[in-house]
């Protein structure tokens, strides 16, 4: 299913020179360059208002670039490629209630693959498989609003996994989770064999899950490197309004 | 609180069903044009909003409270076609999922509460905003009048249907007068909350108010270094501009008055007056009962005593309307003139 | 409309009534209501038969009678209306305990009470035995415009989310000492309503984006097939057919 192989490249996501201004004139992105290779788990760090959400909206063509390009496994994001792009890029929204709009978990997870034209046994297999990967198979026939917040976020991940995406993009995956749900989600994400881009300002979570981090600040990539060394650089963090929780020392946390 | 089964005979129920289906069909097409593929989620969320806002109790008078119907509010916020769909869906869901409102009365309920309130509300709103200069005040005043008028008109439409195929032997003119009168008062509450709600949305996200779409556009100037917002110059205090809404409002009030007058002209001795004169009739119950017509939901318990007859209430209601409308227009025009001077 | 009203009436169960396809039940309930409305009001017996029919359905569906009674509270405003009609009605009058009542008015009150009660109980039984999701699928099967069904689907999905928001806003108001006493408090409530609208609208936009992200192109994928066999239609038809027969017999006798 991974069509990246066809294009003969191991790059999952390539963003170059991306600039964007909102219709009201506010410019949010000022030339973003980044490359993520297949199988990587990368954290995109940045303070509020850095343009993280704007960047994410470009990755599956909800917003279209004012300047520059976005390519997913070699396929450029353009209006004529949107359908395939949206299959390749699985976007998990911050509020699972936005994402889980169907009456039951089963139908919600089936929504994406059904839009791709799957029906019957194949559709059912995809749904079960995706729910199984996030440990929510038993919730299949329940309405989403009867689930806990953490469960809803896991189902939200499943809705995207069911599309068998090239890259999974998570917007603040740890927000509003209690410690147990947070750990459970981390275990699920760590065991997924897909490329992950995790947008967050939860630095310990980034350290726990991603070897590599990018810092997006004022509309550009301000730093790119191993998470551990970025988080150890107090000056860098302070320059971009990023802070570790009190008493947290990255070096003390073996992966 | 919707009309249950048994209020209307089969032909009227079926006829209203046809009207409702046709109206909803038209609105389905128009809403698609307005909202494109966003129609389903947007209208669904707005329907949920209307459902929630109908539960928001607000005080009408001392010790009593009511809630919003929302037809006019929805029309101004999301456009008339979408509003009809939203309210119709709310009614369908209430009928089928909550057993609220008779299944055979769905046609009547949708016709009155979705179509009549939204369309009348929107028409009044357009009349007001078109004849006044484009301003936030005009939108707010238009919202007030739209909601105010939509409620008694729907009540009168209910009365007309009742006259056609109601199952109770009540004199139509007395029902009309009582319904109209009570609902003018209810409409005042609806108008107030609608206007305040629209105004609060305008203050934060003016782009979301369908009825104020033309409002934001002229506020931005395109200059060499991007878009620069500018303050709107105070509109010229041309007397012609402020006059038409007054005329329109006056015309509608006159219509209402006409209904009340005709009630007095035709009122038989054994109409409401007679009944009210009867000691056996507990005046406390009547207003509540009429109020529990299709449009109700407002407790107006605080005002029963003055309602010795439906007609009296009608007059009181119309009087209040005229006074309130006059006062609003007076202040609006004063403020506009003040602005022009400054 | 009272608070607490947003709890769906569905009572889970596995009875023959629960198992009937939703489209059959929708038509049966509608047909029953029409038959009741078409019954002449003088036909006391016919209404008794209708009530008996509903009682049988309730017993078969194992719906607790208490639950049905509690839900019937929704009728109360109309009971009050019906009670008033004999006082204000026209026509021949009779003295009851010294109070002059209209005879046609009494008939009208009885008519509304009887029919509204039967109608509301039928609706309660429909809602109690049909899962909300199934109800939507049934409506779709009955060729209700799919856009309308989708709007209802989104409304049902987000109703509790938005009511929760409304509740949190109320708690926030009240915890800062706000009491809605009279009309002067209206601006505060209206601001809440305005904020609620903005939140609902913005959520609608986000939901739309979430749909787009998963390949939505304006059509909901039709993955459900909810067939109803002739036998099921036949079983569902028993209720409205009996009610209609009763109404017809009552009419011919009247």
TrEMBL record, chain A:
Gene Ontology biological-process entries: cobalt ion transport
GO molecular function: ATP binding; ATP hydrolysis activity; ATPase-coupled transmembrane transporter activity
SMART domains noted in UniProt: AAA
Domain ABC transporter, chain residue ranges per copy: 13-243
Membrane topology type: Peripheral membrane protein
The entry's keywords: ATP-binding, Cell membrane, Membrane, Nucleotide-binding, Translocase, Transport
UniProt xrefs under InterPro entries: AAA+_ATPase (IPR003593), ABC_transporter-like_ATP-bd (IPR003439), ABC_transporter-like_CS (IPR017871), ABC_transpr_CbiO/EcfA_su (IPR015856), Co_trans_ATP-bd (IPR005876), ECF_ABC_transporter_ATP-bd (IPR050095), P-loop_NTPase (IPR027417)
Localisation per UniProt entry: Cell membrane
Primary site of residence: membrane
Classification via PANTHER family: ENERGY-COUPLING FACTOR TRANSPORTER ATP-BINDING PROTEIN ECFA1, HEAVY METAL TRANSPORTER
Similarity-based family: Belongs to the ABC transporter superfamily.
Protein name: ABC transporter ATP-binding protein
From TrEMBL, chain B:
InterPro entries: CbiM/NikMN (IPR002751), PDGLE_dom (IPR025937)
PDGLE domain ranges (all copies): 245-334
Annotated keywords: Cell membrane, Membrane, Transmembrane, Transmembrane helix, Transport
Membrane topology value: Multi-pass membrane protein
Chain ranges passing through the membrane: 40-62, 68-93, 105-125, 137-164, 246-265, 312-332
One Gene Ontology cellular component annotation held by this UniProt entry: plasma membrane
One GO term of the biological process aspect: transition metal ion transport
Subcellular location per the Swiss-Prot or TrEMBL entry: Cell membrane
One matching Pfam family: PDGLE
PANTHER family named in the record: METAL TRANSPORT PROTEIN HI_1621-RELATED
Name of the featured protein: PDGLE domain-containing protein
TrEMBL record, chain C:
Location within or outside the cell: Cell membrane
GO biological process, one term: cobalt ion transport
InterPro entries: ABC/ECF_trnsptr_transmembrane, ECF_CbiQ, ECF_transporter_component
Primary location group: membrane
Superkingdom assignment: Bacteria
Mode of membrane association: Multi-pass membrane protein
Protein name per the record: Cobalt ECF transporter T component CbiQ
GO cellular component entries: ATP-binding cassette (ABC) transporter complex
TM annotation in the entry: 43-61, 73-90, 110-130, 142-160
Keyword annotations: Cell membrane, Membrane, Transmembrane, Transmembrane helix
Species name: Planotetraspora kaengkrachanensis
Pfam families according to UniProt: CbiQ
